[in-house]
Queue: 2 jobs
Job 1
Amino acid sequence: MSDSETVLSVLADGVLSLTLNRPDKLNSFNEEMHLALRAGFERAHKDADIRAVLLTGAGRGFSAGQDLGDRDPRKGTPDLGHTIETFYNPLLRLIRSLEKPVVCAVNGVAAGAGANIAFACDITLAARSARFIQAFAKIGLVPDSGGTWSLPRLIGEARAKALALTAEPLDAETAASWGLIWRAIDDDKLMDEAKALTVRLASGPTMGLGLTKRAIQAAATNSLDEQLDLERDLQREAGRSADYAEGVTAFLEKRKPEFKGR
């Protein structure tokens, strides 16, 4: 368990499972939950025993985004830029820069920052009953948590604008068909599939998987020549790894490889 009960943290089979745990508030973010989730991803960066991360929510929803009760304008004008700079931006940077697979299992509504945090993960699965909502438009705000960056890259400008300006819910099947998430799964099978996938990734050549994540993320801003050079450099690094040696040796010896993530 983590020190804060707002995020449950369990490490098993190389997988750090992080569960948002304010189910009575649809796992909306308060400062305690922000700090606890950040601590979980900081631990994933530092702990070699953690080879993959699984993020999900407790109860009937993944996350409704920011707890608006903590940013009530009736109690004084809040500095929402400070909130983003202090809490959301560091979290998004930790998720994107973690050179280990991050799987997200969206078990219900994912609204506002909750949706955009899910989109920032490497592989996102969702229950068929899940809904993604860019709820910012309902209260006069701008999508944050990387939403204005990830949405147009994943689904194009037209769809990104429509989702952001209308705040209409998007069902999991459509999100999958549009390329916002990897797959929609029957509700009762979501966690079993998400856990099995994350354990499989954690037992794989996670050094190479991390380098792959870095390369794909860099492609959004690299030219072709820059990307080709990056592939060369990363492949050189991967080719010197113990995982590569083990993978090829196991193939030649016709046995299952035992990767160590280095």
Job 2
Amino acid sequence: MSTLQHDDVRQAVRERYGAIAETRGEQASCGGPSTSTYDEKAQVYGYSSDETGAVPQGANLGLGCGNPLAIASLQAGQTVLDLGSGAGFDCFLAARAVGETGHVIGVDMTHEMLRKARQHAIDGGFSNVEFRLGEIECLPVADQSVDVVISNCVINLSPEKHRVYREAFRALRPGGRLAVSDVVATAIIPESVKEDMALQNSCLVGASLIDDIEAMLSEAGFRDIRIEPKDERGAFPFSRSPYVT
């Protein structure tokens, strides 16, 4: 895929998620459990009712496919970076975990999502959270400036995943941790499907095989890689998978 096509994919994703932000998640369609509310969907993925009730109203748009915080082992005082932070759901929960001495940075390339997230931070009084405009392939953070990188159902959307993992590694301090929940492919996706630009902004077509994810993580410098496929999402050949390095 050419650089121009990469930009086309990012623009398609930006437009789709901008629309989702404006419609409060009504256009989201990444599969997952069939539930009546976004909070119920999050609880299926392991978030507690206390957690779903602790974030500002509207921060949960039902876009996740797992719970990266469950494997992030966050501690008070840490700095956390969320790749593709959306309306801020995981950022606000991370902010509770790291406390007033900690700091959370959300990065998103969609202006509409950033506006929502920033307003939610104001409404909820979250002074230890900030949201930055940027692409996850070129993160707007300094080298070795964060303790934990998290992401929830976003990296699969990137047309240059190897760059995402390299950037995450660059941003992490020595001994840092990457905790991700995402969609993975359990079988090879036909090239004709992968090259369909109309499908590039879906959270399924961009999914990578587990072996490919492990290779990209290793190449980026990560060690102690663990990927654990979970239940099928009802759209073979895909499953959701938390992985931590």
